[in-house]
Amino acid sequence: MSDERDPPLPGLWLAEEGPEQDVVVSSRMRLARNVDGYHFRSRFRDGEGERLEQYLHGVLTEVDPSFTYLSLADTPQTLCEVLFERHIVSQEHVTAQHPRGVAYTNDGTTSVMVNEEDHLRIQVFGPGLDLETLVANVDDLDDRIGERVDYSFTPRHGYLTSCPTNTGTGLRVSVMLHLPALSYRPDNSRPGTQGIVKVHNAAQKLGLAVRGMHGESSRAEGDFYQISNQVTLGRPSSQAIGDLLDALPQVLLYEREIRAALLKDDRTRIEDTVWRAWAVLTNARQITSAEALSLLSSLRLGVCVEMIDGVGLGTIHRLMIAMRPGHLQRRAGSELKPEDRDIVRATLIRDTLLGTDGN
Amino acid sequence: MLRPCDRCDNQATVHLTEIDKGGGKTERHLCENCARSLHVPQAASKELQKLLKTFEPVHALTSTLTGLSRSCPECGMTFSEFRQHGRFGCAKDYEVFGQEVSRLLRRIHGADTYTGKAPRGGEVREGELIDELTHVREALDAAIHDENYEEAARLRDEIRRIGAGAGSHESPGGGQAPDGAGDGASDGDGES
Q1: Residues of chain A contacting B117 with CB distance shorter than 8 Å
Q2: Do residues A140 and A283 both lie within one domain?
Q3: Among A217, A237, A243, which would you mutate to test the B interface (most chain B Cβ atoms within 10 Å of its Cβ)?
Q4: Residues of A in contact with B36 (CB under 8 A)
Q5: Are residues A35 and A158 in the same domain?
């Protein structure tokens, strides 16, 4: 069922190496933009959504002929899920019913959602922590679209967005962090004493938000967290990025120090967690995505602290995406019931980790 | 108030009361994910709702004069509808509900004026468009301050070039060009 519209998995950017990757899984930047002369999505008139989508489809194809463009209304559900699992589209964009689409590059590092909460959501991604490259890429794409489209903009408030939390720069810069040590809580400790709670509180004071893997309202599964800026007015984008870059070294240092301390004081327990994860992942015959993510998180820790070799972070990152329901069904070529997905998932993980899948 | 979602174990954050034709009420309590999957119209996020609540006293005062029903001529949105959903209906709402919007933006971001790039080049500082000439003048001040005279000479030539090319070009800054932005170390009058 996979076809040329599927962003290829072997070349997945998330599987590539990036700076600070022992803690920073990936970085993302997105800009919210609206087109002057059109209502925002919540107030589209009859036919306005279709007209705007058609117009922006044309613009985006002109801006980058290498974009694949999909109108989501005509796109199979499993392909939509694949795009969501790759972070190319948001959950809301998949489930919505109005005319909407997405343009994306084949490597999945760039996507532009059309008629999401704002008319345009321009996103770029990269492995590890590399905000400088991302800001250059997202700015360039924004400028190229902005040459062809009149954005809703006033000098007073900047880029006008549907939600006031994005007004101004429209920029959300976020990094996905793997914080297993900061989330670690020994059995006998009080709730709320983990390092992650302190990170949460400190981030809030700096105007940064800490969320789960899929952003707003998602829970931190597998100890993966997103830290992002909140403020989009009164300071230039560079400052929002600077604030995040100023705060991150402390979080990274904190996570690394606790990893080192845990290895020193509680090594057997950490080794046990990591090797049990390996044992289950390479032997299970059925596994849910929540359990698999939690175990892959432990395995990732094992790789980062050099307890496990022979498995790279790239393999783990690729599995984190490939084991998700949309990808499994797309690969199988048919819809699968949850219990069947668990079986296919276990096979995929075993074959990948034991090096027998040829991927 | 804390109760689980009707469909899963997450905390319910979307609370719906449906009233049928006979006047019977059905209550539903959903988490954001389930609400989204059932296509329930998206309510404002928790944080935003909290902020929007802070507008209630202002509305109590102003509602008698202007009315919560003041609506945008472009999209028909009223401020009370905006408060309910947390999303604007069009770009004009920013102008129509100017005061309320500025107040809300200050509460969210600590500021209501923009600083950053403008579409198709140019730059905005605290809500004012900075034209190219102002920009180069500031660079010239900095070059003089740093005693980088080669750069200063180049910038002075550039100012002449822009000046010659601009003709009757007006500064959107409204005659505030010599306002030395930043730390006040220079007076902005470096064009000599």
Answers
A1: 139, 236-237
A2: no
A3: A217
A4: 91-92, 95
A5: yes
Q: What is the pLDDT of residue A309?
A: 87
Q: Which of A157, A159, A237 is the best substitution to test chain B (most B C-beta atoms within 10 A)? A: A157
Domain contains A40? yes
* Higher per-residue pLDDT: A35 or B128: A35
Q: Report d(CA B175, CA B170) in Å as an integer.
A: 9
Would an 8 Å CB–CB cutoff place B40 in contact with chain A? no
| The predicted structure's pLDDT at residue B181 | 31
Contact predicate A240/A171, CB 8 Å = yes
* Spatial distance between the Cα atoms of B9 and B105, rounded to a whole number of angstroms: 34
Whether residue A22 is contained in a domain is answered as no
- Write the ipTM: 0.86
Does the beta-carbon distance from A163 to B104 stay under 8 Å? no
* Residue A299 Ramachandran class (φ > 0 left, ψ -120 to 50 alpha, else beta): alpha
Please give the pLDDT value at position A359: 46
Domain count across chain A: 3
Q: CA dist A162 to A37, A190, A283, B96, B98, Å?
A: 14, 42, 48, 15, 15
What is the nearest CA distance from A155 to chain B, expressed in angstroms? 5
Report pLDDT digits (tens) over B79-91. 888 988 899 999 9
Residue-range definition of the domain harbouring residue A286: 267-353
Size of interface A-B (CB pairs under 8 A): 129
* Closest residue, chain B, to A218 (C-alpha): B33
- What pLDDT is attached to residue A41? 94
Residue A25: both structure tokens together = 């899984």
**Side chain identity, residue A111:** S
